[in-house]
Write a structure and sequence with these properties.
Distance between the termini: 82 Å
Order of helices and strands: HHEHEHEEHEHEEHEHEE
Number of strands: 10
Helix content: 25-40%
Shape: elongated
Radius of gyration: 28 Å
Strand order of the largest sheet: 6-7-5-8
Number of helices: 8
C-alpha cells in the first residue's frame, strides 16, 4: 500500500490528568511535586520539557525551576546561594516574596548575596563573615543602627527660634547648605521641645546609613584585596 506522505499526529506532551477518582490513588511524591511547582508558579507548565540554556548563549530569563526542586523535600531549612543572579526585575520581585512567604510559614531561609540593596529589602537577620571570622550575627535594624550617627535633619520656617530652644537644652545644632538644621538629638526629644515652645516645624527626618555603607564600615579591616576607587579614593 502506498503511503500518503502524512505522519500520524504526535502524542500530546502535556502530563495526563491525575487519575484520582478513577480507582487510582495519588502518590505522596506526586502531591509534593505539585506543591513544589505551584509555589514558583510552574503548575501550568508541569508537563513541559526543561531545556538548560548555556550562560554564554545569552542573558538567562527568570528561571524558578531550581527553587521548585529545592522544595520537593518540604524542607524546614532552605539555603539559597546568590539566588537573584540572572533574574530580571519581575523575577527578583517574585523571589523576594517567595523567600518572605517561606519565612512566614515557619521555615528558615539562608540567603547568600553580594547585592546589598536587595538583601536590605529581603532579610531580617544578618550573618557576616570576613576572612573566616564571624563579624556580625544580628538583626538588620540593629546592624544599621550601630553605624548610624545619632541626629536628625529639621526643616522649620523659624530656624532662629528653634536654634535658641535647642541650644537652651544643651543640644548641638549645625546649619546645612539646604536651609535645614542638623540636630544631634533623638527625634522624640526634638518633638517634645518644639511642642513645649510652640515652634513650627515642617519636617523631622532621621538620617540612616544604607546596608552597604554599614557593611563597608564593618568589613574595612577584613578585606584581603583593596581596590582603589575612581578619583584615588580608597575605602
Amino acid at each position: 500500500m502506498e503511503g500518503t506522505g502524512r505522519r500520524p499526529p504526535a502524542a500530546p506532551s502535556a502530563r495526563p490528568p491525575n487519575p484520582v477518582g478513577h480507582g487510582h490513588r495519588e502518590r505522596p511524591e506526586q502531591r509534593q511535586c505539585d506543591r513544589g511547582g505551584q509555589g514558583p508558579g510552574l503548575g501550568e507548565d508541569a508537563g513541559q520539557r526543561v531545556v538548560q540554556q548555556p550562560a554564554e548563549a545569552g542573558e538567562p530569563a527568570p528561571c524558578p525551576q531550581p527553587h521548585a526542586a529545592a522544595l520537593l523535600g518540604d524542607p524546614a531549612v532552605l539555603v539559597l546561594d546568590e539566588p537573584v543572579n540572572g533574574l530580571d526585575p519581575e523575577g527578583i520581585l517574585w523571589l523576594r516574596h517567595f523567600v518572605r512567604d517561606l519565612a512566614v510559614q515557619g521555615r528558615t531561609v539562608f540567603v547568600s548575596s553580594h547585592l546589598m540593596s536587595e538583601a536590605a529589602l529581603t532579610v531580617d537577620h544578618l550573618v557576616i563573615i570576613g576572612r573566616g571570622r564571624l563579624l556580625a550575627d544580628t538583626g538588620m535594624t540593629a546592624f544599621i543602627d550601630r553605624y548610624t550617627e545619632v541626629g536628625v535633619r529639621v526643616r522649620t520656617p523659624e530656624p532662629r527660634r528653634l536654634r535658641d530652644v535647642l541650644a537652651g537644652a544643651g543640644i548641638a545644632v549645625t546649619d546645612c547648605s539646604d536651609g535645614s538644621l542638623k540636630v544631634t538629638a533623638a527625634a522624640e526629644r526634638i518633638g517634645e521641645l518644639v511642642a513645649a515652645h510652640a515652634v513650627t516645624v515642617h519636617q523631622v527626618t532621621r538620617k540612616t546609613v544604607s546596608l552597604e555603607e554599614a557593611f563597608m564600615r564593618l568589613t574595612a579591616d577584613a578585606v584581603e584585596y583593596r581596590a582603589e576607587l575612581p578619583g584615588g579614593v580608597r575605602r
